[in-house]
């Protein structure tokens, strides 16, 4: 436990902690209701479900009784005639010179994938072995309910003494690239302006130990088409003299990594920063790495995940196994997802990747690139008051000192927040643990982690209410 901050009221904080504990059953019930709504922003899914989830969250926000205004809004997608998915924006003005805090989460979820891989239906919340299973149970409807639950507890205890300004922003398209995010910020910049921003969309060190994310890798995702022929040909008649597109693609992709599996692309940088101890045994337990398969890369495992680039081929269009024939394929299309080390711009990384691929195209294969989706990484300035206050609240909310985390994944919209609100302190927190399996079948939320996360945020809000901005 940390020592209480100078203005802390132990009796008040005890009452807030009790209100959190009493409110957890209703919070989990509300979370279950949100999990039942299959809100997926991909156009091939029923978009009315996102309207349902936004409306439900707006009702939850209104029912706290804390906000001056609650709205469901959309913003234009720049460069198109379309609008993005519905977001919830709830605001209350600060009083008494108190700071304002922006609480962010998202209500859209990943597609469920193969239903046969789920042990229980993806949109039917199911509790077993101390975890709540369901798509979005962790990422990120638990983040939504952590905000709502903390606000309920603080509002119940502080009442009219709550003078903290709050903006609650629940996005509806994070999993689909936050295409209207920057425009939404621009449209609502005055309502969203805050002294500190909590992004509840990350994870923790483990199910018992909180984590404050202080670095995020960026991303560069793009499509590459490889062509060697203007039409398919008989592999028996011309194989051995004519390179088909699959052969060229396999040879080309293999140049992206060295013999250890480390990225081998000139121009991709890495960050030099210390990492906590993390064993290969832990990596195997958290990822399901098969017994005979070795990890890839060099140096400490967490440096490979947090501080170095990574490249993954996440999609390929070629002749399917069922449709296989003795044919030389004229073209193959792949989707490449690169994670960019913190500190390097995604645009620079993408240009380095394109240069490398063009320079290593075998047999003069023709390459074309499209659909580039770029997002910069993020490094937190940990010197501000909000970071120290949050660390203390985590230590008290979990009963364990927090760990500063890097994250191998990306939250590209944080760069938009930094651009629009350069003076705000950004706190990346979360309710996930390493076994949450976000984006995967059997996604789940560790229930004790959720309880501690709500307690932490309620303490954080209570203590921020003692500060003069």
Please give a structural write-up.
The protein is of the alpha+beta class. It folds into two domains: 10-216 and 378-464, 3-Layer(aba) Sandwich (Aminopeptidase), CATH 3.40.630; 219-271 and 308-375, Alpha-Beta Plaits (2-Layer Sandwich). 32% of the residues lie in helices and 22% in strands. It has helices spanning 10-35, 48-63, 141-158, 181-187, 189-192, 235-238, 245-253, 280-287, 301-306, 346-359, 385-398, 413-420, 447-464; strands at 69-73, 87-92, 100-106, 126-128, 131-133, 165-171, 196-203, 211-216, 218-227, 233-234, 310-317, 327-328, 331-340, 366-375, 378-379, 403-407, 425-432, 444-446. The protein has a six-stranded mixed β-sheet with strand order 1-2-6-3-7-17. It has a four-stranded antiparallel β-sheet with strand order 11-13-9-14. It has a three-stranded antiparallel β-sheet with strand order 4-5-18. The longest helix is centred in the first third of the chain and has 26 residues, at 10-35. The protein is elongated, with a radius of gyration of 24 Å. The model has no long low-confidence stretch (mean pLDDT 95).
Estimate the helix proportion, in percent.
25-40%
The proportion of strand residues reads 15-25%
Please state how the strands of the largest beta sheet are arranged side by side.
Answer: 1-2-6-3-7-17
Counted by DSSP, the helix tally is 13
Low-confidence stretches are none
Task: Compute the number of strand runs.
Answer: 18
- Which of globular, elongated, flat, extended, rod-shaped describes the shape? elongated
Q: Gyration radius, to the nearest Å?
A: 24 Å
Count structural domains: 2
